[in-house]
């Protein structure tokens, strides 16, 4: 979108539509895009929302916006592609070897059971949950309220009506106070 349309307002709306977790907000962003720039809207729809939007993606993304490993590796080989074949193969071997070594070193130095990035996401979500009201429906289902909004969480199925829990496979900010409630009263 950035390369094709060169408009920040268009890319901001597309980013919001791509990252939203529910159909209502997706439709709202896409309608805004349609009104703002019909050509960009048509392009986005023609490219297939299942390829770029969280809410329409059939695969698990775990908070990632791309699932294409080849796309990631191609970007790393941008300049190395001009090398002779054997030199390119050696470059790729060295690059992957370094990646595995570096990731292993990071994993060994972890201070939590989660990665540092996952831990930070949880900490951000924990900040919000002190202001939420939790009402149990049964041992697995909870109703969580905040400022007039309400979500239903099923801890057994790992779902929330916000859709973040089931789409990211990571507890949303509504599931966390439900877990705390369950631990305090069980």
TrEMBL record:
SMART domains documented for this protein: ZnF_PMZ (SM00575)
Keyword Ligase annotated: no
InterPro entries for this protein: Znf_PMZ (IPR006564), Znf_SWIM (IPR007527)
Pfam families the record matches: SWIM (PF04434)
Keywords on record: Metal-binding, Zinc, Zinc-finger
Highest taxon of source: Eukaryota
Repressor found in the keyword field: no
Sequence ranges assigned to domain SWIM-type in this UniProt record: 142-183
Single annotated GO MF: zinc ion binding
Protein name per Swiss-Prot or TrEMBL: SWIM-type domain-containing protein
Taxonomic placement: Eukaryota, Viridiplantae, Streptophyta, Embryophyta, Tracheophyta
């Amino acid at each position: 979108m950035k390369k094709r349309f060169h408009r920040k307002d268009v890319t901001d709306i597309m980013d919001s539509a791509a990252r939203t977790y529910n159909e209502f907000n997706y439709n709202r962003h896409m309608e805004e895009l349609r009104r703002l720039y019909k050509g960009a809207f048509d392009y986005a729809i023609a490219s297939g929302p299942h390829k770029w939007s969280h809410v329409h993606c059939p695969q698990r993304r775990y908070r990632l916006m791309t699932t294409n490993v080849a796309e990631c590796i191609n970007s790393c080989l941008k300049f190395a592609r001009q090398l002779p074949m054997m030199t390119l193969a050696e470059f790729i071997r060295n690059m992957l070897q370094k990646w595995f070594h570096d990731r292993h070193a990071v994993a060994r130095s972890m201070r939590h059971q989660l990665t540092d990035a996952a831990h930070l996401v949880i900490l951000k979500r924990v900040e919000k949950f002190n202001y939420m009201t939790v009402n149990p429906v049964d041992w697995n289902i909870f109703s969580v309220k905040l400022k007039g909004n309400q979500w239903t969480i099923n801890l057994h199925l790992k779902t929330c009506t916000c859709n973040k829990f089931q789409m990211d496979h990571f507890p949303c900010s509504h599931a966390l106070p439900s877990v705390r409630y369950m631990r305090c009263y069980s």
